[in-house]
Amino acid sequence: MKWGTRVTALAAATALTGIGFAGAADAAGPPVYSKYAVSGTTHIAKPDADLELGPGQFDMYTLVGPYTFYGTVTLPPVEVTRSVPGLGKVSGTITLGPGHADGSVFGGFSGSATWPVKLSDVRVNGAPYDVGEACGTAEPITTELASDDFVAGKGGRLTSTYALGAFTDCGSATPVINAVISGPDNTLTLDLTAA
User: Fold this and answer.
1) Tens digit of pLDDT for each residue in 146-157?
2) Exposed, middle or buried by CB within 10 Å (0-12, 13-18, 19+), for 18?
């Protein structure tokens, strides 16, 4: 190959590579909105409790090109009831989220979501126990969500392991709640289906 031909070929390859790189890195237009129905479970390790989650909704906005996303996962409150030694039957309503999520849907799903956690309607042996309106984790929990089989526009199963931090502002029940609920090695599974 002659020198001039090589230079021309190299320039063309560089130009094409640059175009391809820009297409992969830059968003091609406004975000694409998708809505997914959400259901799933979370296992809270310390009390060995399994909670059914949903039906909820994931409002997702995807940037075409980089295939990154952001959005909000909304789940309904869920009631949990456990027997606590020394207290008896304790129940309460846990509100998880709304969860604010972002990440990538290029070749699967990889992202994180932050969830505020609130506890309300606490009852001990059927009697209401006032924990106040601000009872919840001091910081939102973070779940690193992943899926190899997620397909944009169709859905898939997301999984995560997370830590449930300390609760605050729950009045005299705060130490009991932390002793019974807070801790690591909790699991989360969310099934997303295009709505």
Assistant:
1) 998 999 889 999
2) exposed
